[in-house]
Amino acid sequence: MMFCSSIRGPAPSLVFSSISMAKAISGDRKVSPGKFLAWLRLVAIGLLIIAMARPQWGNTKTEVEASGIDILLAVDVSGSMQAMDFELKGRNVDRLTVVKAVVKKFIKERPNDRIGLVAFAGRPYMVCPLTLDHDWLQLRLDSLQTG
Predict the structure, then answer these.
(1) Among 81, 104, 103, which Cα is nearest to 93's?
(2) How far is 98 from 88, CA to CA, in rounded Å?
(3) CATH architecture of the domain with range 70-142
(4) Using DSSP, how many helices (H) and how many strands (E) does the chain show?
(5) In this predicted model, what pLDDT tens digit does every residue of 71-80 receive, in sequence order?
(6) pTM exceeds 0.70
(7) Coil, strand or helix: which one is 107?
(8) How many CB atoms lie within 10 A of CB 61?
(9) Boundaries of each VWFA domain copy (predicted)?
(10) Which of 10, 15, 32, 133 is most deeply buried (CB count within 10 A of its CB)?
């Protein structure tokens, strides 16, 4: 037996290891993984909200030289505009569809005029203020519905 122990070398000084020294060095954890993930989620949501707001830096000023007039169009969107008593491109359509087509043609023929849009069905409401951005005006016109 002594022969075997001498081959293995001297006996280790620590029979069992202890992690008490490592715990003392590391200290207490101040932020648990759950709290860290919660904060990380809040930061991610905050950054997502900021990104959706599309922040823009600097001021850009665009001056447009144009001579034209200001035109404010009023469109009826009451229930009576649902009547199918017009024909457009060979098919029966409601009155509001015809009004939209006529207004779009009118807008195309007035490139230098500021045009706005008010809709009413009992009470008026502003759909689009006076603008030279006719593409946006047409988008707002397309969004009109009866009722």
Answers:
(1) 81
(2) 7
(3) 3-Layer(aba) Sandwich (3.40)
(4) 5, 5
(5) 999 999 999 9
(6) no
(7) helix
(8) 4
(9) 71-145
(10) 133
